[in-house]
């Protein structure tokens, strides 16, 4: 059997944000994924492997090598790939570029939530953080909200200006509070361990999308914001007890487990119920989403051949 190898540039040309989120939605109608992570270390170097198995969809192992010394050698810090296996016989079907899967999985996860939780008439979208993920969010949200006006805020203004220059019409915000208050959708992708967003700034009808926090010590929204909003996560299995955005306030008693209304596996309750409520979504990622994304990429690749 021929193993398909899908590199970043060639693969990306075939993909569509709306089709990806439709595939993710379909993936959540299947049995809940079995997932497992493993870490290996050599001094500061790391191998992270995240595995998922969804009955009917297949198996995936996403492996990333993190070598902090690589930039000094002119090489990227993070490298890796996703191995995608057949559900029927376990044979290796494809190896997909790590960065391709990560880009589309991360922004697609947030976009799926926004298509359900954000008001369809949202026209002002604020991106907090001008890094690689911030740029992916601009592309993803632009696909579902083509009439929206985008603003970016970043601690280092020069980085925000560079991002805005890449997307004609995008504005740069100087004051984060002012920008949050003016937005219909706030999507945040920072590396902060302390909240950068304050609940006092939130306005009725907004949708807040939190991406950056992925460790137990990280969070982007303060306690007041969590208490004012209706809370959703992509997966209870990969957020509760794992990510600081949820773990820290739960352990402090600020919010309770029952305050998390739904994850993607509960489509009937994963929904906005009024135009004036504030919805807040925690994007936790997870290997099951890597599997869904990789399967979508392989299907798109095969359809194009």
TrEMBL record:
Gene3D superfamilies linked to this entry: NAD(P)-binding Rossmann-like Domain (3.40.50.720), ornithine cyclodeaminase, domain 1 (3.30.1780.10)
Protein name (Swiss-Prot/TrEMBL): Ornithine cyclodeaminase
GO cellular component, one term: cytoplasm
Species of provenance: Sediminimonas qiaohouensis
Coiled-coil spans in chain: none
Pfam families: OCD_Mu_crystall
Entry superkingdom: Bacteria
């Amino acid at each position: 059997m021929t193993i398909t190898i899908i590199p970043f540039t060639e693969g990306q040309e075939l993909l569509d944000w709306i089709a990806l989120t439709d595939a993710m939605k379909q993936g959540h109608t299947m049995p809940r994924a079995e997932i497992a992570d493993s870490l290996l270390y050599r001094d500061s170097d790391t191998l992270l492997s995240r595995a998922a198995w969804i009955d009917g969809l297949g198996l995936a192992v996403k492996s990333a090598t993190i070598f902090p010394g690589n930039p000094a050698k002119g090489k990227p810090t993070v490298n890796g790939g996703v191995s995608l296996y057949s559900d029927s016989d376990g044979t290796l079907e494809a190896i997909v570029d790590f960065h391709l899967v990560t880009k589309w999985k991360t922004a697609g996860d947030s976009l799926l939530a926004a298509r359900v939780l954000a008001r369809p008439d949202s026209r002002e979208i604020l991106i907090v953080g001008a890094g690689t993920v911030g740029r992916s969010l601009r592309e993803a949200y632009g696909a579902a909200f083509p009439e929206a006006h985008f603003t970016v805020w970043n601690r280092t203004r020069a980085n925000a200006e560079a991002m805005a220059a890449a997307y004609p019409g995008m504005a740069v915000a100087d004051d984060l509070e002012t920008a949050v208050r003016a937005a219909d959708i706030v999507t945040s992708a920072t590396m902060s361990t302390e909240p950068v967003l304050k609940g006092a700034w939130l306005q009725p009808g907004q949708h807040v999308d939190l991406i950056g926090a992925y460790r137990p010590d990280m969070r982007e929204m303060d306690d007041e914001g969590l208490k004012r909003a209706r809370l959703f996560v992509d997966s209870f299995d990969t957020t509760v007890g794992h990510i600081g955005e949820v773990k820290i306030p739960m352990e402090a008693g600020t919010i309770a487990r029952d305050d998390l209304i739904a994850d993607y596996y509960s489509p009937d309750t994963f929904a906005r119920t009024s135009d004036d409520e504030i919805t807040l979504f925690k994007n936790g990622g997870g290997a099951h989403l890597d599997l869904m994304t990789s399967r979508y990429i392989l299907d798109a690749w095969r359809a194009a051949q």
